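> @MW can you paste both from yesterday?
MW: sure, first one:
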Amino acid sequence: MNPIINKSKSKGAFTIVELLTVMSIIVILIGLLVPSLNRVRRYARMVRQKAQFHSIEAAMELFFNEHDGYPPSSALDGSTTGGGLPYCGAMKLCEAMMGQDLMGFHPDSRFRSDGTIDGTAATLLYGLPETDPHYVDNLRMRRGPYLPLENANAYALEDLYEDTSVLPSDRFVLCDVYARVKNRSSEGASTIGMPILYYKANTSNSLHDPAVVPTRTDDMGNIYNYWDNQDLVLLGKPSDPGAADHELAEPERFYKNTRNDKITTPRPYRAETFILISAGFDGEYGTSDDVCNYDWKYRP
């Protein structure tokens, strides 16, 4: 009986060769599936980013109708002393959508980095008790927020960058859906996206020429001025501080990426409104995976 029992038991076991074969097949299948899953994941994130842009565009139209125009995107703020202080397009976008203190946009705002109207009258509510008459009157004047606060991805610049250079560190920007940057103000390991760049079209101009390099205060006839967010782009990559500058730091790259190929004459996309740019999956502005509110093709 023992030989028969042993023989029946041996039939139910796998040999080492069989196990290795199965494991090899599993490894091959995983190797084939992982790239596909990564592509699906990246595509899904891009769809989410496009949806965020759609929400911002709808909110911008509400702003346009209430304030008779889109918010400015110039590199400097609306103060007159000293020619203005650095206050980039990404920050002005957030102020228009959410308010500088995320309590709604103040209609008397001059888009000043210090949060004042004329240097003395404040549009911010910081430090005021809710019983203060100024607080109540100020809040009643607000419009919006045009985006729901919980979905706006609004973060202070100091949450992303250790050194904000010439830009005010406590001013907010809207961040994209690619959570690649560690939130510096969070005790945990939470991550946030890169700032969304905003450029408003100067419809009185007609050029889109990288050879005509604008300055902070003069777009030199170009419909879009790459300087509008240059101070922010020059802060580099917060996820990799030692890396090279963003490709979009070069004016030639900016004007290449925003040129509309469907028109023979050099002309940007959305020449009558505004453009939005997300750094995309790699967290670098100007590369082929950037997500914009227009369809474009990267040109090496």
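MW: second:
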Amino acid sequence: MNGSHILSWSMALMLLCGCASRPVNPPIARVDPQAGYRFETHQAQTVNRDTLVILAFSGGGTRAAAFSYGVLEFLQRTQIQGPAGTTLRLLDAVDVITGVSGGSFTALAYGLYGDRLFTEYEQRFLKRDVQGEIIGRVFSPSYWGSLWSTGWGRSELAAQLYDEILFDGATFGDLNRGKGPLILVSATDISSGSRFVFNQRVFDVICSDLEAVSLSRAAAASSAVPVVLSSITVRNYGGTCNATMPPWAKPFLDTDDPPRPAARAVRSLRAEQAYADSTQRPYLHLVDGGVADNVGMRGVLDVLEVSEALHDAGLPTPLDGVKRVVVFVVNSLSSPPTPWDQSMTPPGPVDIMLKSAGTPIDAFSYETIELLRDTAARWSTLRLIRDSVKLPADPDPRVSAALRVPAAEIYAIDVSFPALQDKAEFDYLNQQPTSFVLPPEAVDRLRAAAGTIILASPEFQRLLKDFGAKVVEAPASQRGR
């Protein structure tokens, strides 16, 4: 067979293989606010409703996946003893886990596996050259036909791999049948720059069934680094299922002048509401969640802001009855130094592009954590003033509103590399790249560091003190540190 025939046969085979199409999220005819994978229905399963425990897992590739996994290991192996002598495994107290990019894999895998995660995750994902396997498939002729298909790009190829090695065909419907924490992973709507959360409330707006969406596609969307990977496309059927916003959101969307404490949250709500116009936006293209929120904290801040504004207005809030909000901000952000300032030669275009994309994300990540701390301090101060100052019989309504602060005490537990007291260990972890392959030693040291940081955290110790509790069992790797 001559060369031209070989080329013709090769092209024909590629065209025959080029029939791959992206999975399509199915529509729903009518919204049922009492069904689906959403906070409201999941909270009905929660036993201890006076304390809300949230884990926020940041982006950062395998570095983030391993660091967040270390947090889960610490919480799984650590028990606290309360004043009545009862013991509680800390992991069983977790209500919500948010995940972005690399952190989304750990969040989704725990939601699916439960305790089985601690025997399988390390080998199935953390200590695997996931990045190399994706690259291998991109350059394999077996996948070229699919890659050339319309609507099927590198992220769909990655999602296929994630499904094979980690998620085993599972969907959000499988998460909804479990009893673990609510898992909320997010991507970025590249058209608007807003967060897109894989939550049935958001899927209500686009009139689609989240339970039919695969976990692998959600993870692929959340980690679809722009340019390196393609976007994940979601079909929008908005405006066809009589979707309405939840009652607590209506006071903010029905006015042109929303309460100031909730201004940022209202912007997020309106971005969600814009999806209802599927005529203009029949498709949504999603990329890495870190572009909009690299620490997975925007949703948490939005809920706090909305609760504060509703409380000011004397209206019911999503956090009514909650006395404590405990947030573990698991931030695997690394900032390795560069030698650029030591040379007259400027950095190359690729270095500049990566730095230009990463620097604003890093700055916003820091700001997000500070906003949580500011909210915690403001609520605590206002409660102190309210409880210690005797107001006149007919107080100024503005003063009364200002002191009408939510009752929940906020504990912001910062789990990040700078909290390490061991400088050598900080330097080592801070050098780890954002990729989906790390040396086994780096994975193990990231896991161990997470528990070390939590045990040393002043906020964690304050939480134990306020609960009247003490740690009675800790991970073996943490003892004596």
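> thanks! The chain has a mean pLDDT of 84.
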